[in-house]
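Review box. Two proteins, two foldings.
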Amino acid sequence: MPICRNGNFKKKTMSNNVNIRNLKGERGAVTVGTGNSVVGNFAVLQIITDTTLSALGADNYSQQDGLLTSITLPAGTMLYGKFSSVSVDNGFVVCYKDV
């Protein structure tokens, strides 16, 4: 979105870490439900129904923390990051593809 200062338009940019196309799902998505898992490069996980994950692989998440695999994530939750794998114990998740 352009910003106008004294008649000069400058393009407003975001951090290189965020790709707006990915957040809109333009790269596609994969769905995963109860008892299934998926491997790939994902930028966003959208929790469709109340979900419990059995495993989560991510650059910015340590599995030993167990935080996201020990609770039920409510429907409507969006997780942002660099995910490499998602395993669903119970529920339904849409995994939006990253670059």
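Next protein.
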Amino acid sequence: MINLFKKGLFGSSAKEKPSETPPTNLQQINYESFVGQNAVSLTPLRRTGIIEVNGRKYEAQSATNRFIEKCKRVRVIGVIFKNRLLVVAL
């Protein structure tokens, strides 16, 4: 793919920034630690959605594949795909 901005076709002022490396002290999330905890659905879970656990947002999936409304209490019962929490409505 040709980067037209880099070639100067849309102005020579577009400069390429040096690549930044991510911080090395990023915290690895242990999703298994959330199993058994209660949470709140921030979005409707039409199979998948977003929940809040301990003040942080995470992707979640309904374990029963049933619709879970927004602002409903849920319980984390497992982890799938290494980073998606499996939940049931309370």
